[in-house]
Amino acid sequence: MTAADYAKARRVLGRRDPVIRDLMRQFGECGLARAQRTDPFRALLHAIIAQQLSTKAAATIEARFAALFAGRPTAATIAATPDDRLRAVGISPQKLGYIRDLCGRTLDGSLALDALERLPDEAVIDALTSVKGIGRWTAEMFLMFRLHRPDVLPVGDLGIVKAVQRAYKLRLAPTPVRLTRLGDNWRPYRSVACWYLWASLDNKGR
User: Fold this and answer.
1) Class level of CATH domain 40-145
2) Which of 21, 67, 150, 160 is 20 to 30 A distant from 32 in Cα terms?
3) What pTM, to 2 d.p., does this model score?
């Protein structure tokens, strides 16, 4: 998305949804672009390492992990590194298995990371979820923060559920069906709307 695309998204969302309009006024410019990770392999590596960890803990482990590879981990260098060295920086056995699978699929070409840019959203999700440890939510975050796709709505994201309940003053947490229905009003800029909802929880992106 370009600056012009973001300006158009703000106009469309502000016109259609007064709640999102108020969040945009409160939080200003959308920060999706600032949070973008340019390298697809490292974006997926980050997603696996960060699973079920606080932001601080994930950053600590990821920094130690990157330091093993002079700040530039690749599928080939990780694949050539013994398990005990990877475990020593805080990678759990389960996540180590996920990382090994990601590296293997990247190296044998069964996961063509460079081709993902050209695929439609659902095809990207199908490709990524073939990797162990990568579910739909992780694939949706990849679409939003790596491929910069403008119209993604992660209905399984607990932050979005909580933010919508709070912002729209709902008595109960919205179901995926209700979130999908509400998100229809944000098309084709559901990713932008989600960033503002995250920002309302002081997340300011992922």
Assistant:
1) mainly alpha
2) 67
3) 0.86
